[in-house]
Amino acid sequence: MGSHGIRDRVAIVGMGCTPFGEHWDLGLDDLLVDAVTSASSAASVSTRDIDAFWLGTYLSGVSGLTLSRPLRLKNKPVTRVENMCVTGSEALRGACYAVASGAYDIAMAVGVEKLKDSGYSGLPRQSIPGDGTGGTLGTTTAPANFSLLAPAYAERYGVDLAELKDVFSRIAWKNHHNGARNPRAQFRKEVDLETIACSPLVAGNLGVFDCSGVSDGAAAAIVVRAEDAYKYTDRPLFVKALSLAAGAADGNADPAYDFTTFPEVAASAREAYRQAGVSDPRAQIALAEVHDCFTVTELVLMEDLGFAERGTAWKDVLAGAFDLDGDLPVNPDGGLKAFGHPVGASGLRMLFECWLQLRGEAPADRAIPPTGKKLGLTHNLGGGPGECVSFVSIVGTEPSA
Amino acid sequence: MTGLLAYGTYLPRHRLRAAEIGRALGSGGGRTSRAVASFDEDTTSMGVEAARAALAGHSRLPDRVYFATSEPPYLDKTNASVIHAALDLPTSCLAVDFGGAPRSATGALLAAADAEVPTLVVLAGIRVGLPGSTDEREGGDAAAALLFGAGSADAPVLASVLATASTTEEFLERWRLPGSDASRVWEERFGEHVYAPLALESFHSALKAADLTEDEVSHLIVCGLAPRAVKQFARSCGVTPGRIARDLTDVLGNPGAAQPGLLLADVLDRAAPDEVIAVVHLADGVTTTLLRTTEHIAVGRRAPSVDLQVRAPASEVSYTTFLTWRGALHREPPRRPEPDAPAAPASHRSSGYKHGFRVSQCDECGAVNVPPSRVCYSCGTADRMRTRSLSRTAGTVVTYTIDRLAFTPSPPMIAVVVDFDGGGRFRCELADAAPEDVRIGMRVELTFRRLLTANGVHNYFWKARPVTEVGEAD
Fold first, then answer.
1. Which residue in A64, A283, B72, B464 could disulfide with B444, CB within 3.0 to 4.6 Å?
2. Subunit contact B337:A121, Cβ cutoff 8 A
3. ipTM of predicted complex
């Protein structure tokens, strides 16, 4: 047994991403058609040229027909996948492995979600008959699950909860700052620190501005063998690592887990760095798109992804290390916080920002500083503290020597 | 000898002052208060708490459970079976409801005392009335549980039943149509008129059967939901006022079906050996029960006493909170999907955990798996588990949050992660606490609650609550 990775065996040669937001006038089919056609035209291919499709959606549709019907794909292999908030990344993973295996020449990964038709704020949920005990997760909402991190982090590292709240506000401020420069983002206004800090509390010390946007949207990527990449574009993105970790859901069972980390994220990051040959992520990575479903999540991810030592990321956040002009820009597109979080699309939306930034196509006002670094990281997480699935990908503009 | 082997009571932590009702309704107040069951409590869940107190540390388990209440959470479905499950009793144990009127409490008590096998009687009441009514102001919420059976060396009889005598008569004094939200009463003076001779006849017959006189009664307990008749009997029965037990209505209100058990427990909490206790219950007729305490009464008492619970720091609720908790104020629900009702097959499969809080412990490595799991989280071994209940194990809060978005009848929801003493971790709600109370390191114990009612199904499960000097886990 062994995990071997597919470093530099496949490449992304075309991507598309719809604006994220409250698309009252666009249905799921519209979002899919928009994302798929823009990805196809970016690679100058037609959907008829694509051999296989992976569609990720959390709750907006079932089966491959959800994609083949609106796109009128005739008898193509279309696989529908779901892995909570990692759904979009799961679609990418399927497409990449399919091409790497030699089974197909061209594959497409599509992620989509239509959340705003539910009439609810927050995420809808699967209705699976149960015993009413809530299992290991209890009966709390998503913001409450993630807010469990804050008192534990404060206690463990001796940080005052009020100071930690400033750190959270700083993260939200940064992501709104970036989102304001992104025409596809759901929220396109900068928000001052005081407004963020004083927003109504949702769970624990997380306020409304500590939570990501609930939105509709879709994103798509076209995957080909690395050696074919330059047939489609002169600036492909080579896939260096794809790493998925589903936890044993033991954090809510094992008293050894202390709610200051996502061990699943740390494990998936280690594996991704191994596959990609990255030894110093903070120094080697040009930008990181991480799963900032809540501000506290982004703080903890900085440590789990190896961007900061344990118990110190909060200082780096306050020092601006992860700002657009910091030494490691995190979520330059605004992240889940400002870009929005249509669940099944988010993983591919992160990849889309790497696509723009690493290939020099990001708008000037949110382009990351030219450092010569050629690697981008996406991190996507589903679940919460104690039990989650975590995905890390690393992509780069050049195949390794 | 057969008799009372154990008893326990449960008083919810919340109180509503008559003055608060007066303030809200612009009517008169008064100096009294009433006990109020929390939004997540009903007669079944409070009955479980009282029964847990009664059976704490007790080796003799009941063969029968009799549950009496006039506010049953379910009809057509036995509520006592929930209590049976929460107490983790064997399937061979009978569990039945005595429903309808507060008089069922006396019926259940007598049936338990008469039973030839160890029998637990559980009495619970949640009394409500229309806004502004006497019933609303003077009602109360409480539960009591008493275990009867043959005494043994490790479970001796604390009090024996000397005699009982009942009178029955058909008259319209208090009544409620099924489904209506309040009971109705005829003019109180009429009730007083009918009860007076019935009470005296019952009392004298019981004394005669036990070959006792009024003077030999050390503690007289008079209960019932007709206060004029109750007072009138206490005055006229010939027992000196100093021997008439307090009825606690000024601080707790009258908890209906639970009252005979609650007041008997309060007397047992301080009675000396070899004292005669008379319980006179006025309810559609009158029943007098005479008991005599034994020399074991002092050692058989279980914490917490009624008095300790009465004097414990209480949380005072506003009138609007009270109305909301009792479903009398329809509030805007959160804009979120409503919780699903628990599914019957899934609930049945997990009943040992859901009701009895039975978890699994790995034979290979000893790790405690909550919820029970076939594969151990710690060592990965499959199907080498034994189960045991952690329902009486205390724990410590590891982290917490205040969930202002969760679907709950009483937002915000307080959620905690609890590590049990001796192993096992549990994520649950924190009951009977305010957001400012919760902190890392806080000591908690489990309490059986009704999480919510969805689609006509009550979802019972366990929550944590702060350990207090009253609720000290054993």
1. B464
2. no
3. 0.93
